[in-house]
């Protein structure tokens, strides 16, 4: 399934999960789209001036205003009476931190835009700084493990829940470990008028510190441990959840990643807390079964 | 600013580039390990293709997949995910 809409020659790190998500998104969306991306790894690695990997119209916003730029394009298309799906593809830092105000406005106005966050759980492009999507216990350059620190000390911000609270008609999470599921959700979003929010986990070998061939295994383990539940919410109702048979202990996920190495080497309390996060997810979404 | 000058302001389009022009950047030189695809073991499932981050796996006339080595970075995801164990990663010897 090589995408005709995305060229090789981009400069994402070897084994990066993000371009895999891009291929799947383009497979689901088709060619009649306009993509908006804020600053981040995606923008930097796919649009090194004067080249572009994109085979669809693509525009760079600022780091903080992708949703507002998308809203503007959507209005312009309406005025011009032209048809195209407007899709934002943005990093987690751009989405959960600096762009959340513009995104909230886009949700609140009910603009017909699909906003997709590719989540690599930190500011990767600038050198692995923590953001509010960084999970509890992960070591980053601004939440480093040390004598007085076990890494990130706050839980991951639940942006899908914030989208649901805005009354967004379609909210979904996904992982590149399950490609058919990602494509199906992009296609479903196309059928719904109004704002759509899709949050896709895209493991980052450089920032998470794992072997570059383990990207898909890790994308699956995040789901199989319950740490990254995948589900769909339509009109505020949970309509679909990926069930997990024999949920795996969180160690199996943490063990493969350098950002968590310290947790398994003596931070017992934190390990328990991470397992509790997975257990609570399982309870909340009914993952087990 | 007076009125005449304000009317002179034009929207500057910024940097505009041509589509799919990254193909001038041959990322294959990043590679340390090279994936070798064994057609005899392959069942043509396409999993390698779905997951290749470089979008560089192509299908030949017989329906078998092989990477375009101009772009393959040698990540090894294809070899790791292939259900038939049809892909081997080999340390690449380079000249020059
Ligand atoms: C207003 C502003 N502040 C800071 C930056 C620097 N900056 C560029 S990309 C980036 C991090 C992007 O993180 P994320 O959105 O998670 O994308 P990733 O690089 O992780 O894919 C930062 C801090 C900027 N470009 N603009
Ligand atoms: S830093 Fe991470 S997200 Fe960014 S290009 Fe490299 S692997 Fe991909
Ligand atoms: S994943 Fe393996 S078996 Fe499937 S098409 Fe690729 S090489 Fe063939
Ligand atoms: S090694 Fe990586 S880049 Fe090369 S063909 Fe396999 S998946 Fe693609
Ligand atoms: Mg990020």
UniProtKB/TrEMBL annotation, chain A:
Q: Which proteins does it associate with, and in what oligomeric form?
A: Heterotetramer of one alpha, one beta, one delta and one gamma chain.
* Official protein name in the record: Pyruvate synthase subunit beta
* EC identifiers of the protein: 1.2.7.1
What keywords sit in the KW lines?
Oxidoreductase, Pyruvate
Question: Which top class of enzyme applies to this chain?
Answer: oxidoreductase
Q: Which NCBIfam families match?
A: PRK11865.1
Molecular function (GO) terms for this protein are:
pyruvate synthase activity; thiamine pyrophosphate binding
Q: What residue stretches are annotated with the Thiamine pyrophosphate enzyme TPP-binding domain?
A: 39-200
Q: Which SUPFAM superfamilies match?
A: Thiamin diphosphate-binding fold (THDP-binding)
Q: Please give the superkingdom of this protein's source.
A: Archaea
Automatic annotation (TrEMBL), chain B:
Pfam families per UniProt: Fer4 (PF00037)
Q: Which cofactor does it need?
A: [4Fe-4S] cluster
- Record's protein name: Pyruvate synthase
GO function term, MF aspect, one: 4 iron, 4 sulfur cluster binding
> What InterPro entries does this protein map onto?
4Fe4S_Fe-S-bd, 4Fe4S_Fe_S_CS, PorD_KorD
Location of the 4Fe-4S ferredoxin-type domain: 33-62, 63-92
Q: Which UniProt keywords apply?
A: 4Fe-4S, Electron transport, Iron, Iron-sulfur, Metal-binding, Pyruvate, Repeat, Transport
- Lineage of the native species? Archaea, Methanobacteriati, Methanobacteriota, Candidatus Methanoliparia, Candidatus Methanoliparales
Q: How does it assemble?
A: Heterotetramer of one alpha, one beta, one delta and one gamma chain.
- Its domain of life reads Archaea
Which NCBIfam families would you find in this protein's record? Answer: PorD_KorD
């Amino acid at each position: 399934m090589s995408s005709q809409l995305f060229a090789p020659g981009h400069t994402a790190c070897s084994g990066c999960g993000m371009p895999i998500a891009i291929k799947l998104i383009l497979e689901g969306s088709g060619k009649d789209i306009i993509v908006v991306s804020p600053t981040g790894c995606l923008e930097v690695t796919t649009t090194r001036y004067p080249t572009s990997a994109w085979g669809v119209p693509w525009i760079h916003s600022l780091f903080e205003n992708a949703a507002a730029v998308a809203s503007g394009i959507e209005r312009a298309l309406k005025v011009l009476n032209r048809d195209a799906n407007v899709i934002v593809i943005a990093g987690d830092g751009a989405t959960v931190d600096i762009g959340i105000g513009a995104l909230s406005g886009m949700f609140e106005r009910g603009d017909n835009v699909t906003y997709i966050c590719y989540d690599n759980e930190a500011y990767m492009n600038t050198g692995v700084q923590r953001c509010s999507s960084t999970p509890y216990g992960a070591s980053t350059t601004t939440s480093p493990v040390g004598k007085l620190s076990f890494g990130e000390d706050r839980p991951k911000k639940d942006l899908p829940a914030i989208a649901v609270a805005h009354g967004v008609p379609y909210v979904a999470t996904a992982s590149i470990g399950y490609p058919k599921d990602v494509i199906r959700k992009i296609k479903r979003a196309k059928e719904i008028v109004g704002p759509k929010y899709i949050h896709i986990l895209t493991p980052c070998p450089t920032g998470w510190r794992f072997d570059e061939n383990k990207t898909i295994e890790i994308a699956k383990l995040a789901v199989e441990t319950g740490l990254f539940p995948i589900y769909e919410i339509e009109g505020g109702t949970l309509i679909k959840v990926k069930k997990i048979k024999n949920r795996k202990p969180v160690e199996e996920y943490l063990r493969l990643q350098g950002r968590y190495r310290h947790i398994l080497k003596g931070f017992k309390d934190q390990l328990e807390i991470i397992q509790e996060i997975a257990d609570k997810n399982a309870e909340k979404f009914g993952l087990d079964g | 600013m007076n009125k005449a000058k304000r009317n002179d302001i034009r929207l500057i389009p910024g940097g505009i580039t041509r589509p799919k022009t990254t193909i001038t950047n041959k990322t294959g030189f990043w590679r340390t390990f090279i994936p070798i695809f064994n057609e005899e073991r392959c069942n043509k499932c396409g999993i390698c293709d779905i997951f290749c981050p470089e979008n560089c796996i192509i299908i030949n006339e017989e329906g078998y997949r092989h990477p375009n080595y101009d772009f393959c970075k040698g990540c090894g995801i294809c070899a790791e995910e292939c259900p038939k164990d049809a892909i081997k990663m080999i340390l690449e010897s380079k000249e020059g």
